[in-house]
Design a protein that fits this description.
The protein is an all-alpha fold and 241 residues long. The protein has a domain of 125 residues. It has seven helices and two strands, in the order H-H-H-H-H-H-E-E-H. Strands 1-2 form a two-stranded antiparallel ribbon. Strand 1 and strand 2 form a beta hairpin. Helix 3 packs antiparallel against helix 4, helix 3 runs parallel beside helix 7 and helix 4 runs antiparallel to helix 7. Its main location: membrane. It is a multi-pass membrane protein. Belongs to the tetraspanin (TM4SF) family. It comes from Bombus vosnesenskii.
């Protein structure tokens, strides 16, 4: 059985199965790339400055690059399956294997970050607060976190005063986009009606775990589909004479 010859029913089944799996992988690659882009646009990267760990951001970039390449490779995999070209199938298998490892690593990294986050979050967030005035990146990360999650400090607004720092303006409620109340009533007090009083630790943990779960699950799911793609490509490769 070779290129240009009629395949038996089993061969056709493998051919169409590989074609279908590649089509699903193609969609999965686009979904992964879309989710990674969403996560980056949703400002996940600034969380790393708060927790002193860029593992999640790194995993997202791995999945973004992997998703794009997976979509491209699976497209050519469909062509290789439909034309029964052995060299294309072999090349496809090698590339998909490398991508399989990449996607699996990206997914696992996201889950590892998810578990590690619980144990280190409060300590790392408290540590980053100390450099709020001296490091612009940390200041922007805290301001974004407090504005986005409607919170203040780690466990509450008093955390800032306990460190000898003024309560940031980002702890004040918004009147409208770009304009906030002046919630600082004194050196160690805030106006409770105009300020976010709850701490950021719970919201940050939920926020990051949500993104880590979505990205990790998507990466591992696509990796599983790629495994089937490798299996079908091997079978079809052996069936082509």
């Amino acid at each position: 059985m070779g290129y240009g010859t009629e395949m038996d029913s089993c061969g056709r089944c493998m051919k169409y199965s590989l074609f279908f799996v590649n089509f699903v992988i193609f969609i999965g690659g686009l979904v992964i790339a879309g989710l990674a882009t969403w996560a980056l646009l949703d400002k996940v990267s600034w969380i790393g400055e708060l927790v002193g760990n860029d593992l999640l951001t790194g995993a997202i970039y791995v999945l973004l690059a992997g998703g794009i390449v997976v979509a491209i490779v699976s497209f050519f995999g469909c062509i290789g399956a439909s034309r029964e070209v052995k060299c294309m199938l072999l090349t496809y298998f090698i590339i998909v294997f490398l991508l399989f490892v990449t996607m699996l690593i990206g997914g696992v990294l996201a889950y590892v970050f998810r578990e590690k986050l619980v144990n280190t979050l409060e300590r790392e967030m408290s540590s980053s607060m100390r450099t709020y005035d001296s490091h612009k990146v940390v200041r922007e990360a805290w301001d974004t976190t407090q504005s986005t999650l409607h919170c203040c400090g780690v466990n509450g607004w008093r955390d800032w005063g306990n460190l000898g720092l003024n309560v940031p303006q980002s702890c004040c409620r918004e009147i409208q986009p770009g304009q906030r109340f002046n919630c600082n009533a004194g050196a160690d007090t805030v106006n409770p009606s105009n300020a976010y009083l709850v701490g950021c630790i719970n919201g940050t943990q939920i926020y990051m775990q949500k993104h880590a779960t979505i990205m990790g699950g998507a990466g591992i799911a696509v990796a599983c589909l790629m495994f089937f793609g490798m299996v079908f490509s091997c079978i079809l490769f052996k069936m082509i004479e």
